[in-house]
């Protein structure tokens, strides 16, 4: 009886080993194919070319023929990216307004979005020249008390010096001509400087309070809501997405996108080379 049981067990083990070998051979013959499904994204920082509530704004003069010529070259360069989707710094509630204005803009470029002009001069114009049909707003407006945190920082010598240096650099960049300004704000160094400013402001508070954390949380929340709005858009690996946002939002989006396996960031300054 013992011999019979041992014989049965041996047959079972041999059968299992045979199946394992078959499965291993099957895997060798049909190796798993790795599919790169990353969606290409051109996350492009812009200055606000007209109306803005930003504390620091550009001094670019689009009535200057040279500046207008450089803007045209910039747009033509971005068109080479061949975007299938364009995202603008407007809230999703405006998507119907964007679509109706764009349909008029295609035929008559004087029909424009009633917002800061980069949305028209860059956003809609890139769409028109590249034949893009899908344009979406992804913004999420949230107010926060930026000046009060700067005021707290200015009460400490070291912090005040840091704020002064950052603001001086903002003013220097805002005074640059269009070509140099767009090149600068799309560098990694500039984006991380503006990103660090907001993290620094989060550390500012009066005794026993956390004003900085409370206020900058609102700004983080805004950028996360924008990223959520962005991800609500239906997209496939065949899409090529052009995002046009103010430089600070672009800094946040760089961090969100480069840490997602779903997306592949393009180098924006390849499109500033004209």
Give the topology, please.
Blueprint: H1 2-29, E1 39-46, H2 65-79, E2 85-88, H3 95-107, H4 118-130, E3 134-137, H5 146-153, H6 157-174, H7 178-185, H8 188-201, H9 211-231, E4 240-246, H10 247-258, E5 263-265
Parallel strand pairs: 1-4, 1-5, 2-3, 2-4
Helix pairs in contact: 2-4, 8-10
Q: Report on the biggest sheet.
A: 5 strands, parallel
- How many strands appear in the DSSP assignment? 5
Indicate the overall shape.
Answer: globular
Which stretches are low in confidence, meaning pLDDT under 50 for 5 or more residues running? 1-35
Order of helices and strands: HEHEHHEHHHHHEHE
Q: What is the spatial order of strands in the main beta sheet?
A: 3-2-4-1-5
Q: In percent, how helical is the residue content?
A: 40-55%
Structural class: alpha/beta
> Tally the helices: what do you get?
10
- Percent of sequence in beta strands: 5-15%
- Report the end-to-end length measured between terminal Cα atoms: 88 Å
Q: Oligomeric form of this entry? A: single chain
What would the average pLDDT be, to the nearest integer? 87
Radius of gyration, in Å, reads 26 Å
């Amino acid at each position: 009886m013992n011999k019979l049981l041992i014989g049965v067990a041996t047959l079972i083990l041999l059968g299992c080993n045979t199946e394992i070998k078959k499965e291993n051979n099957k895997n060798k013959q049909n190796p798993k194919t790795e599919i790169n499904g990353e969606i290409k994204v051109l996350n492009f920082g812009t200055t606000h070319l007209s109306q803005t509530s930003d504390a620091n704004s550009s001094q670019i003069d689009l009535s200057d023929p040279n500046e207008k010529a450089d803007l045209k070259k910039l747009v033509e360069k971005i068109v080479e990216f061949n975007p299938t989707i364009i995202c603008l710094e407007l809230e999703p509630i405006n998507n119907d307004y964007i679509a109706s204005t764009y349909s008029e803009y295609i035929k008559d470029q004087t029909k424009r979005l009633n917002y800061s002009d980069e949305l028209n001069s860059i956003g809609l114009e890139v769409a028109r020249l590249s034949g893009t049909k899908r344009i979406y707003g992804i913004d999420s407006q949230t107010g926060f008390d930026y000046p009060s945190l700067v005021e707290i920082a200015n009460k400490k010598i070291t912090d005040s010096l840091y704020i002064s240096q950052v603001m001086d650099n903002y003013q220097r960049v805002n005074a640059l001509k269009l070509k140099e300004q767009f090149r600068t704000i799309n560098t990694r160094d500039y984006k991380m400087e503006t990103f660090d400013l907001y993290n620094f402001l989060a550390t500012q508070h009066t005794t026993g309070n956390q004003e900085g954390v409370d206020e900058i949380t609102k700004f983080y929340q805004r950028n996360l809501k924008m990223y959520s709005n962005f991800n609500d858009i239906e997209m496939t690996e065949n899409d090529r997405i052009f995002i046009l946002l103010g430089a600070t939002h672009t800094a946040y989006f760089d961090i969100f996108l480069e840490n997602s396996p779903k997306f592949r960031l393009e180098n924006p300054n390849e499109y500033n080379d004209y």
